Structure formats: structure tokens, C-alpha cells
Amino acid sequence: MKDGHTNLFDDPSTGDKVTQYADAHSTPLPAHLTEYHAHMCQSRPDAEMLSSVFQSKLHCFLARALGAKRVLEIGVYVGYSLMLWAHAVGPGGFVTGLEYDPRLAELAETAVARQGISNTEIIVGDGAETLPKLRPSAPYDIVFLDADKSGYPNYLSVILANSQPGSTGRLLRPGGLIVADNVLRAGHVADPTRTDRRISDEKVWNRNIEALRQFNDDVARETRLESVMLPLWDGVSLIRLLD
């Protein structure tokens, strides 16, 4: 979600004040990120797909706390979070992004080049096809999952299958994180009585919700993983690969 609302309080006014207070007391992001985020929010009708600046602070904190140097992002969109991860890992790190839409990939690449960021790459194509073909020179420390929601269960399956203990060319290192966004989808995943939708196509929406429920169940059942689901923003799961 592009804004930072966490909806922790019954009184929306209190919730807004708490969110603003917490955001203001968290380490700020550099101007090139916040300015690009603001520009995208103003210029794109689909800007709801952006992670908020507040949530991005959490992502940056996680990467640095983990000492992450290699990040895989599944779903690049306009490149904001790609640049965020590039900032988090620093010049000595590297970020690989997978993006289905070549127009979005071009937009992201232009934004990255304009900022002089040189530690990223974008692979264009269907993530269901490009992810299994990845053979990184070293495992990723973090996988950020923010792509098509119907694909989440398959992405998880591929990550696990290609990160077997003792294997060479594995995707995610032991102790690495999967950060999965939108896992509650405006509460619909947990509350089937909600009737509002974010997209007009009911079949697509319902398919996405069911896929997210399957993904969340798969994560909870998988013995190779430990996880915590945060009921913040649109729902964020932090998932650690044990082996």
C-alpha cells in the first residue's frame, strides 16, 4: 500500500497520529527515494501498488540487520522498491528484479539510471518461467515477493525446491528471508465477509484471495520455515528459511 496506515486502532484519527508519530521516529530514507515515491503517487493511477515509505523503512532495517548483500525482488513495478533494496545493501551489494511487464521494466531501468544506481539488474519475463531458471553465483539473502498474487504459492514452491540444503546454485541462503507483501489483502484473506474489492474483475480478485490463503497456509505448514505475519499495511509476512 502506498500510504502508511496500519489500522491498529478503532479510532482512525488515533491510528493516523500513531502512524505519523512512529514514521517520524524511524530512520528516514534518502531524498531520491522519497521524491520518486511521491512522484509516482502523483502521476500513476495504479500507485496503490507501491509499498509505503514507512513500510520501506522496515525493509531497509531488515536488510541491514541481516547484513544482506544480495536481494531478489519478484515484481519490480516502477522500480521504487528495487532502488530501496539497492540503497539497503549498499554499493557492495546487488539486487536482481524480475518483472513481467516490459514497459514497467523500462520505466524502472530509466529511474535507476537517472539516479546513477549501478548495483541492480532487471530480468523481463513471466516470473513463473524466469524464477526457476535463475542460477545465482551466490544465494540471495532476501527474496522480496510483491508480484501477481495468484502466483505466490508457486513462487514459494520454486524458492524452496531450488534452495535445498547442500545444493549448489541455491536461490536463498540458510537463514535467509522471504519478505512477502499483501498477504492480508485489505483484510479479505482473513475475513471472507468483506465485500469491497480493489479490482473490478470479481473472478480475478477471488482467485488472488484464494491463492494468498494457500500461500499463507503453505508457509505455516512448511517445517523448513519459521515466520511471523504482521497485520500492518496490507499484511507483511517475514519468513525465514531454516536450512
Automatic annotation (TrEMBL):
Q: Per UniProt, what is one Pfam family of this protein?
A: Methyltransf_3
Tell me which CDD domains the record gives: AdoMet_MTases
Give the Gene Ontology MF terms in alphabetical order.
Answer: O-methyltransferase activity; S-adenosylmethionine-dependent methyltransferase activity
- UniProt entry tagged with the keyword Zinc: no
Gene Ontology BP, a term: methylation
Listed A to Z, the keywords are: Methyltransferase, S-adenosyl-L-methionine, Transferase
Q: Which family does it belong to?
A: Belongs to the class I-like SAM-binding methyltransferase superfamily. Cation-dependent O-methyltransferase family.
Protein name per Swiss-Prot or TrEMBL:
O-methyltransferase
Source organism per entry reads Ustilaginoidea virens (Rice false smut fungus)
